[in-house]
Amino acid sequence: MGMMEKLDDVAVSGAREYLTFRLDQEEYGIDILKVQEIRGYEPPTRVANAPDFIKGVVNLRGTIVPIVDMRLKFSCSKAEYNSFTVVIILNLRSRIVGIVVDSVSDVMELPPESLKSAPDIDSVIDNGAVLGLGSLGDRMLILLDIERLMSSPDMGLIGAAD
Amino acid sequence: MAETHQDSGGAGGDFDLTQFYQIFFEEAGENLDQMEQMLLNLNLETADDEELNGIFRCAHSVKGGAATFGFSDVAELTHQMESLLDRLRRHELQPTAIMIDVLLESADASRSLLARHQAGGEGDAPPTADLVRRISELAAGRSVAPAAAPVVPASKPAAVVATPAASVKKTRSLEISIGPIERPEQADAIRELFRDIPGLGEITSLPSERKDVRVFMVETASTDDDLLDLFAFHVSREHISIRSVDAVAEGVVATPSAPAPSDASPGFGFFDGAPGAPAEQISVSVAATSTESKAVSRAPSKPAAGAVAAQPEAATIRVAISKVDQLINLVGELVITQAMLAQNSRALDPAVYQQLLTGLADLDRNTRDLQESVMSIRMIPMSIVFSRFPRMLRDLASKLGKKVDFVTQGEATELDKGLVEKITDPLTHLVRNSCDHGVEMPADRLAAGKSETGTITLSASHQGGSIVIEVRDDGRGMSREKILKKARERGLDVSDQMSDGEVWQLIFAPGFSTAEVVTDVSGRGVGMDVVKKNIAALNGTVEIDSAEGYGMKVSVRLPLTLAIMDGMSVGVGEEVYILPLSSVVESFQVKADAVSTVGQGSQLVKVRDEYMPVIELEKVFQVPRFDFEKSSDIMVVVEADGSRVVLLVDELLGQQQVVVKNLESNYRKVPNVSGATILGDGKVALILDTGALVRRSRH
């Protein structure tokens, strides 16, 4: 699916709401409907042989949920854990995953006309996982296809039998 | 329930029945299953009203539902069944083997009709006209002569429970009420007496109106005094009252239209409301009322089978499994919260916070009780699985021209529902195999000096932390030579020195199960590899025991439940891991010089006379260590797949029951880890896969 078509999809369905969060200096947006809840960070249980951006697993009211640090995943310069560090719990189809971000900003409604397709750029993010750019005044929002990002093979979240 | 709202609020006010289809299909399926089981257990000569009423009720509810939902073909067929059953229960007709056959066939036909409706009415409807005609002729009292009416085992219903040895003494029906006592559980021990003492008789619980009173129906040849003496071990004499109910029973049997049990309840309310009625009197009155409904079922020499089959419209509700799982999760959370509160309150001064601490102690107890009862929700008796076999064997045996008795033992053994569902298919396979290949043709059996009828026994029992299900037959068993020969032909690595156990294991080899093997060897090959794989997936094992000419036994050992496990928590660095207690053999502290290395790599430790490979969990799990002075010096010997290894850990933290959680549902499979659990402080701990660790040491 090409970039334009993807944006068209978004455009057709009208304005959508996005949860925006910060990673370092960048601001990202994800479909609010994929977000289950937002929690503070608590140290997870480390899982051996996992990629470094998978911090481990936590207990979410009886469910074992893996925690992905987006800052490590996107190679941010620093990944500190303090009282502002936030975990966004995502509900992606049948899976529940937590992502660690620097902070959550707000929920925004973006009208279709403020969406731009992303130019081809050299980035650590799989290009297919960027839905487009949203502009709100002088702020630029990177809209992520979080479901695609989380299910990409290098995330190791898919049960590759060994 | 949201749909209900929308529907009823719709402009047309049209009530949409389709939303109830699923419930109807499930209930109808259950009713048909129950009816089939009762038909199979029906003893033609001594069929009593209670059994016939039960069968009638099943047909009646299927008919009622089918008519309501407009499935006219099902309604028509079940209506005919109902008419026949109605005449039977009124004693206007005597049940015959042909009737049972026709009714069973009709139940099958109803099932396929229902399945077709459930699938949206696609495909051809199975023809039922002939069945309808045959039933209605039978109901009209004419004898039907369908040329091929099999006169096979109908008159010889599969014994579902071993029938107690027929007593020459005259048995009496008694109603025994015990109480009022403070702990009515005491009375349950009496039931065990009947189980443990052969020939004592049969006991069934009756519903009791009062919490502190237990009522039992007993059939026995013993005298009242003997019984009182026996019972006195458990409850004092003055709390036991014995009444004979024979008279009542006869009275009811004599009346053709005995009240169905469902009609019997109104009496209860009356006595309940009587103010100031003395306790004694209430229990007697209750007994009298329930006698009316139950005594009918207690005609002497009734096979025990009825007790299983004729379970009343079970007081159960249908709940989605996801809701139960959620409940279990929530209670788990509650337990963790409670543990946290308990820990935090430990430092409080008991004198100052007395009330708070009492409250916390209560919370502790209540939480544990709650957890226990929630866990038990998932457990269901094995009889659910066993009940499908009598019919299957009856059909299979008559198709093969064999004579088979089916005996089940321990059907009250409880197993996790998730396991029950998964074990059904492998068991079906094993039972089929026993009938198909194990039990010989009647003539062959006679020639071998055995009785004409073969016996297949299915038993379930608890053994330690696992449940063992056995399928036994007294058929021809397996031939060691033939299996070895076949294995050599297939190029498998075998030798004559192999133990019997190893030889039998060969039939689990994939590909060993081809048609010619099946007939040449004793034919146990069909899909045994699949059976083994399915059982291994449940953390279970399969063992075979066989004696040529005498039969064979397949034992399946399963963990009690997949959800809970006894675990031993061990500390490595700052981390905690859980070992399945079932695989822990022993643990001890070791000195560094006890460990020797082989080939500059693998370590071995000598435990008594045996050298065992050492696995350092710290290395396997790359545990970060902050205190470099310390090194692991505690060894835990674990056993899996028949081999032992030693795990090196820092400390033993304790034993506890852990709730096994799946890591793969949100994450993925992690090597050497079988799952995860939640510790008392809310943290996640990984459960080690000892099987994988043992295999790891092998290469």
Question: What is the structure about, briefly put?
Answer:
Chain B: This is Chemotaxis protein CheA. The complex is a heterodimer of chains A (about 160) and B (about 700). Chain A is mainly beta and about 160 residues long.
Write up this protein.
The complex is a heterodimer of chains A (162) and B (699). Chain A has one domain (17-153): CheA-289, Domain 4 (OB fold (Dihydrolipoamide Acetyltransferase, E2P), Beta Barrel). The longest helix of chain A has 10 residues, at 3-12. The mean pLDDT of chain A is 81. Chain A has helices at 3-12, 70-73, 146-151, and strands at residues 16-23, 26-31, 35-40, 54-60, 63-69, 86-92, 95-101, 103-110, 115-116, 130-136, 139-144. Chain A has 162 residues and is mainly β. A six-stranded mixed beta sheet of chain A has the order 8-1-2-11-10-9. Chain A has a five-stranded mixed beta sheet with strand order 3-6-7-5-4. Chain B is α+β, with helices and mostly antiparallel strands. The radius of gyration of chain B is 30 Å and the shape is globular. Chain B folds into five domains: 2-163 and 292-311, HPT domain (Four Helix Bundle (Hemerythrin (Met), subunit A)); 172-246, ACT domain (Alpha-Beta Plaits), CATH 3.30.70; 321-380; 382-559, Histidine kinase-like ATPase, C-terminal domain (Heat Shock Protein 90, 2-Layer Sandwich), CATH 3.30.565; 564-698, Beta Barrel (OB fold (Dihydrolipoamide Acetyltransferase, E2P)), CATH 2.40.50.180. In chain B, strands 14-18-19-17-16-15 form a six-stranded mixed beta sheet. The relative contact order of chain B is 0.06. In chain B, helix 4 runs parallel beside helix 6 (129-139) and helix 13 runs antiparallel to helix 14. Chain B contains 24 helices and 22 strands. The longest helix of chain B has 25 residues, at 321-345. The A-B interface holds A 44-50, 56-59, 61-66, 94-97, 156-162 and B 328-330, 332-333, 575, 620-623, 661-673, 676, 678, 682-686.
What secondary-structure arrangement, pairings included, does this model have?
The complex is a heterodimer of chains A (162) and B (699).
Chain A: H1 3-12, E1 16-23, E2 26-31, E3 35-40, E4 54-60, E5 63-69, H2 70-73, E6 86-92, E7 95-101, E8 103-110, E9 115-116, E10 130-136, E11 139-144, H3 146-151
Parallel strand pairs in A: 2-11, 5-7
Antiparallel strand pairs in A: 1-2, 1-8, 3-6, 4-5, 6-7, 9-10, 10-11
Chain B: H1 2-9, H2 21-41, H3 49-69, H4 72-89, H5 97-118, H6 129-139, E1 172-178, H7 185-196, E2 201-206, E3 214-220, H8 224-231, E4 240-244, H9 246-254, H10 266-273, H11 279-294, H12 305-309, H13 321-345, H14 354-377, E5 379-381, H15 383-386, H16 389-400, E6 404-409, E7 414-416, H17 417-438, H18 442-447, E8 454-463, E9 466-473, H19 480-489, H20 500-505, H21 515-520, H22 528-537, E10 541-547, E11 551-559, E12 564-572, E13 575-580, E14 584-589, E15 595-598, E16 602-607, E17 610-616, H23 617-620, E18 634-640, E19 643-649, E20 651-659, E21 673-678, E22 684-688, H24 690-698
Parallel strand pairs in B: 6-8, 13-22, 17-19
Antiparallel strand pairs in B: 1-3, 1-4, 2-3, 5-7, 8-9, 9-11, 10-11, 12-13, 12-20, 14-18, 15-16, 16-17, 18-19, 21-22
Helix pairs in contact in B: 2-3, 2-5, 3-4, 4-5, 4-6, 5-6, 10-11, 13-14, 16-17, 17-22
